[in-house]
Amino acid sequence: MARMGRPKAELTLSDEERAALEGWVRGRSTPQAWALRCRIIL
Question: pTM here?
């Protein structure tokens, strides 16, 4: 079966970066597009 798209790049996050992304995902005032980008990164 052929894969679609580009292969995933290795991404390492610091604890502070991960905490910030998780906070934005949970935030009620975060725009949906921004929260979606954060979820993709996580």
Answer: 0.71
